[in-house]
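Attaching the record inline, Q. Sequence:
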Amino acid sequence: MRSNKILNGLLNKLSFDKNSSEVFVQSFKSSIVKASGMAFGIIVSILLGRYLGPDGIGIINLSNRVVSILLLIALFGMQQVIVKEVSLGASKRDNKRIASNVVTTYFFNGILSIFLVTVMILLTPWLANTVFDNPELEIPLLIFLIIAPFQVFARLFSSGLIGFRKIWQASLVDQALSLILVSIGLGVIVFFNLEFTVINVAWCYGISRILVFLVTGIYWHSLFKEYKQVSNKLKSILNMGFPMFVASLTASLSNNIDILFLGFLSTTYEVGLYTVAAKIAFMTSFFLAVAHSAISPKVAILYDDENKAPLEKMIQTITLILVILGVLSLLIFVIFGHTLLGIWGTEFREAYLLLVILSIGQFVNIATGTVGSLFSMTGFEKNLLWINVIYLGFNICISYVLISMYGALGAAVAMAVSVALFNIFKVIMVKRLVGINLISIGFLKK
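Structure, as predicted:
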């Protein structure tokens, strides 16, 4: 409470409006957790770069990307369903509603994840040797796949925590804890002079994810233990989950298509270089993610109350701050890019041009502000879905062409161009549909 008062006082002195101040105060704890997760993610990435080189880090990241898409399919949009149903059940003290939805998702997602993992395990030799043309990918990918069902349940538990308003705790177990445990595991390997191989690194990831599953499960079941009179909610949760699944799948494919195509059309060495450049360039997305999570509820309330003037003022204030952060980040990456890349190892400095191109794309991304929240929180989710579907199609086409011709450089250009074009388009559509200007100057004000 004391920290909240201090933050409010500081923001008032900086002439922040009431709504903007509230957004920043509410996001404080979550920001700390996300920053910790990002910091440990960078530590892990540096260790992998130092000890495995571009090829090794490429194998690990390619395995992660393949499994992340499998997880999204296995979850089938149920994370959002759990958040909604647990929130409503908790507010009405309806334990039967919570239990019925939770247990139904346990069975549905558990069976679906085991089925998908079994199919992928059978396909792993073909994926490693034929699709990605790298036999060293096979065992790490198998390890990641075996652990995938544990990740599915950990994310369901985490969604339940959010439903009970344990926001920062959910962020900790969902975003930071695994990376903290992986960094500890890698530290143990280095400290005891054990063999730092791709397979041992994959086991570090696997063990950490099992531990996250156990911790999250224990915490969730300490909050909710009422599993009496459970009814089957499969039909209703599928109806709720499917649109969310489609939206999440298109977004995830858009975010991962560069790495997947690069692994398919190029080499894991280039995947490694590109991954590190993207890791640095996408640091600015931290600010945007915090703003999204903090601003969404406020946008929904103000828009529902038809308070467009304070809503627009809040959006413009936050967008201006994001633009300033974006400019500073871009300058840092352009000026100190070679030095930053050298932290991962001297061979990664050849990724400087990739870093600059990706940073430009991310600058446009952060400069266009929380445009996604304005779509989803004002009743224009279907418009956002169609924009994302078109974006995915465009991204697939341009990525395939440019990566085929220029490898990692083509991937960087494709990502930067796609992100920039479609975020600018979203800003224009928000003005037309919602009637909100994200910035207070320029052609958008006309």
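The chain has 16 helices and no strands. Residues 442-446 have pLDDT under 50 and may be disordered.

More tomorrow.
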